[in-house]
Each structure stands twice: as C-alpha cells, then as structure tokens.
Amino acid sequence: MLITNRQLPFFLILCYNFINPLTEALDMNINRSIFLLLFFAATVGICETSNTASIHGTFVDAEDEHPIPDVLVRVSPEKTAHVYPDREFEHATATDKDGTFSLNIPNEPQTYYAFSLMVIHPQYQSKLLRHEMTPGKRQYDLGKIALKPTLSLRGSVSGAENLAGLIVNLKMHNVSADFFRAAAPIEHAAKTDTEGKFHFTDLYPIAYTLTISRDGVIIAAVASVDPRKQDPISVRLPAIETLRAKVVDTQERPIAGAQVYATRRPETPQAHGALLASTQTDETGDFQIQVLETEPQLLSIEVSKSGYFSRVYENVDIGKMPPIIRLEKGVTVEGRVVLPQGLPSDAQYAVKVFRADADMKPSLNPLALQKPILSRYFPVTESTFTIDGLFAEKYTLYIAGDNISATGVDVDASATPERLYVLADRPTKTLRGQILWADTDKPVPDAVVSRSWYPWELHPHDLSMTLDRFEGTTDTHGNFEFNNLTDARYQLHIRAVHVVHDADTGRYQRRLIRKQVEVFATSTAYCIYLGKRDGTPFTTQVR
Fold first, then answer.
1. Please, how many CA atoms are within 13 Å of residue 502, restricted to the half-sphere of its CB?
2. What's the sign of the alpha-carbon dihedral 403, 409, 415, 418?
3. pLDDT over 70, % of the chain
C-alpha cells in the first residue's frame, strides 16, 4: 500500500492509536516517545515546505514591556510583479498569553519579495509593518514589537439643569497618518451621566472635533480636542438662538414643505463642520429652528424645495436674517427618449445636466472633471422624463446608463422649451487589448491599466476614486478589457513592473514602467508594447 505525503499524518495517527494501548500495557515509554518524535518530525516536515516562510515575534506594551495577548496579526505577502502592494491580508493569527505569534506565508522567490503585517488590538494603536523577503530565507524573527496604548479623554458639560443623556461625539480630524488609518475608528460617541461627565477610551494621538447633541440637535461644538493633553476638558453649553421666518415664492404665495438646514462650517481645513439642526415649513410657509450661538462667519442657512432654486445664506447673524425668504421657481424641461432594445425591465437610465459651456473632455483624474449640475434617474420602461428646477439658461443634457451609450442634446431653458426628443439607441462598446514586452514579445501579466473618464460618468457630488470603475489588471496572457463604454476616444495609462534577477544579491529588482496611449472604444483588440524598443525607457528607480 502506498502512502502519500498528504495521507501520512493520518496514517501515523492511526498507527499511534493502535500502538499506544500496547505500549502502555508493556510500559514502553521510550518506544512511545520515539514514535511521538517521529510523528512530529513527519508532520512538521509536511507543513513547512520549501515554498513557505515562518514569521514569528512578540508584542509588548511600549510603556512597561509586558506581553500583549490577543493581538490580531494579519499578514499579506506582496508579489514581485504587482504594481500595487497586496493588501488582502489573507493570513492571520492572534498572539498567545505570552504575546507571541507564529504563522506561515508563501515564500516563492520568483513570486514574492516582501510581506506586510497589519496589527490590531482594541486597547492599542494599530500598526502597519513591512519587511522585504530574502530568497531562500525561511525564518523571520521580528523580535519584540512595541505597541502604544490607545488614549483616553475625560470631560464634563455644564450650563443646563438636565445634563444626563447628552450625546457627545468625537470625529477624527482629516490628517493623513498611515500608522492608524488602516484600523482606527473615525468616530466615537458617549453619553453624559447625571453630573454631565463623559469618558472616551481607545482614542488615537490626533485631534478630534467634538459635538454635543440633545434629541438630534447639536447644542455645543468644539473645533478641536486632543487626547494627548491629559487634562479633562470642560464644555459649557452656549446659548440657543431661535430663527423664525416665512418662505414664499416670487408671487408671495407660501411654500409648504421647504427644507431648512442650519450648518456650522469647519474652523480649519482639518476640522469638521456639522449640521446643527433642520426643519421644514408648515402649510403657511412658516418655520422655527433652534440654533446654538455660533460666530456669524461659521454659520450658514440653506432653504430648498424641489422645483425651486435653493437659497443659501452665508455668514449668518441670526438677529439679522430676513423675516421673508423668497424662492424662485425653476424651469421644467420635458423629453422623450428612445433607448437600445433588449435592456432589462428593471434597468434605469440617467439624465445628467451640464452647463452648455462645460468642458466635456475626458481625464485620467475623475476629480478634475466637470461634474453634472444634477442627475435624475428613470426606469427604462418610462420613455418620458422631466427635469425641473433649472435656471433660464442653456444646458447640455446627457442620456447615459448601463448598456446605453452616452448621448448629448442641447437645450435652451431661457426660451419656452418644447418637449425634447433624444435618440439614444446606441449600445455601449467594449475596449480590449493585450500588453506585451517590446523586447521579448511576451505578455505582461498583472499590469495596471487605467482608462480616462468622461464627465457624464460622474455624479453631481462624486468625490470618490472608485478604482474598479476605471482601472483593471491584465491576466496571465496580458489581456485587459473595459466594458460598458461610449463609442469615443479614451486615454489609457499603463503601469507594469519589469522584474530582473540580480545574480550578485540573489534578489529580484523591480523597475516600474509607465506608458500612455489614446485609443477608440471599438470592436478591435489593441496590441500595446512596453519596453525600450518602442521608446518607453526602463526607469532606474528600484521599488
């Protein structure tokens, strides 16, 4: 009978279960010990293969160096040929009572060149560590790794009779700091006790914006508190002011259901603003809103209603706000659209509105694009659409959606517009290609290919960099593909890592190569070369 390496541990266990009663009866302790040694040697030999590396270390408190148990240690081996460091952290373990951890990760010299550790514990500041790997090395002893405890913040609220149950909120300032961003909670909340006292734990060494609210209304705000300052903070509730006004249209008719928002703007670029309170007008157009006493340069009031132009008051002094707020009714544009056949019945199309002079050129940086003034979504089963709340100006409307090629139409809302007719029945295109090394004609796997965006692909307040919407990697054959595109010209930004083995050091040197091309979204598959022969030089920077 043949026993494979995978079956060997189970076979040894079966043998041990059979032999152990006999050895106990004969008091053969020596033979049993030899068998156990054989068992562990066999299993260790199977678990620790030549293509794995063992990582171990001990986490201790940075203040008194006592070991820290239950630290979550997540490890991600980084691939040599990848442009971006891997951050999937598929390998994980936790420290024991002595603060020690040990785990195995892949260790193929031609595939992996470094590993990153993400360290997380509720009472300690998270940490990100990175180590380069040495070809042939199978043991990485990281020694003692010190973690700093998280911080605490105590405080008290005064200035009111009933201080129990107030919600105190902390929001981390917008400051880049890699050492905590990976795992630190952005916001914390606590309740005050009957004496108005509150206590926060698990904070990081960075400033926070503090707000205090009751029944969903913010009644106090502090632009910056820092837990690194050990002194308890004291917050006295400021006075509450009342704003009363009436909202009417240009014909002096009351507007019911208009939304009113009072906002406190941030005092510094790193701090946070806050929505202090909100309400809406009654059937007579009247409203009343409670706002905490705020410096005029930090307070703004916005009044809005669907179909009307919003009115925003900056640098508001509550005592000087006008008693009557007038909203101008916007222009309404109606249209009918013809869409491609075969769209799912639950699909939607979007009507995106741009000013007539908006720059519609594509860009590799979505944040630099002109964004639509507004977007409205309609089911594909409805061929008519209505866009209201427009100024009496000229606009360009784009019809877009999944499997719908973006189609633009100009409209002049300054005149009485007729119903638009938009023929948007063109399906979307697929842009595909293959990346090859110019010197060897071999495919380039794991190359990052980014495509440019058009403004109609954005939302009015889109500030995100959703990479999977415009970026992908090549497969093992160097192929890439972008779907659901409009028949237009696109820029491609290609980044790949050229790996060269250095015989002297035994390491694989990584050189980043970039290239930009401009192509059309057509049914043709493009062949794009990287390397010296096509004029794209290798960079000298080793990453």
1. 11
2. negative
3. 85
